[in-house]
Amino acid sequence: GVISTFVSYVAKMATRRFEPSLGASGAIMTVLAAVCTKMPEAKLAIIFLPMFTFTAGNALKAIIAFDTAGLALGWRLFDHAAHLGGALFGMWYVTYGHELIWKNREPLVKAWHEMRTKNTGKGGGGRSN
C-alpha cells in the first residue's frame, strides 16, 4: 500500500493533478500481481461470466495494459498510477524481494537475540528455562 501510494503521488506531482488518493486498490493490486506472478497458469473466471476462463498471467497482462493506457491517456476513473505501482511491486517481491528480505534478515535476528539474552541476565524480566 505504501509503495503504490508513493507511486500515485509521484505521478500526480508529475502531471500536476492534485487529487486525493486512498491507496487501498493499489495494495489489492500488489497482492493480485504477486499471486498472478507466483501462479501464472492458474485458471480464473469473472464471477458473472463463469463460462469464460483465462490464465492468471494473461489477466495480469490485461490489467497492466489497461492501467498503462489509463495513465497515458489521462483517464480519471481509477488511480492508474497506484495500480501500476502496486502491480510492479507485487511482481518484484515475488521475483526478487522475498529472497532479498528473508536471506538478509539473519544479522537482524541475531542482534535481537543477543540483545534479549543480555537483558535477561540482568534481571530484566526475562523468563528462566
UniProtKB/TrEMBL annotation:
Residues 1-97 form the Peptidase S54 rhomboid domain. Coiled coil: none annotated. It is a multi-pass membrane protein. Gene3D superfamilies: Rhomboid-like. The chain crosses the membrane at residues 20-37, 44-65, 77-96. It is an enzyme of class 3 (hydrolase). GO terms for molecular function: serine-type endopeptidase activity. InterPro entries: Peptidase_S54_rhomboid_dom, Rhomboid-like_sf, Rhomboid_protease_S54. The keyword Ligase does not apply. One of its GO terms (cellular component) is membrane. Keywords: Hydrolase, Membrane, Transmembrane, Transmembrane helix. It catalyses: Cleaves type-1 transmembrane domains using a catalytic dyad composed of serine and histidine that are contributed by different transmembrane domains. One of its GO terms (biological process) is signal peptide processing. Its EC number is 3.4.21.105. Its main location: membrane. It is found in: Membrane. Belongs to the peptidase S54 family. This is rhomboid protease. It comes from Anhinga rufa (African darter). The lineage of its organism: Eukaryota, Metazoa, Chordata, Craniata, Vertebrata. The gene is Parl_1.
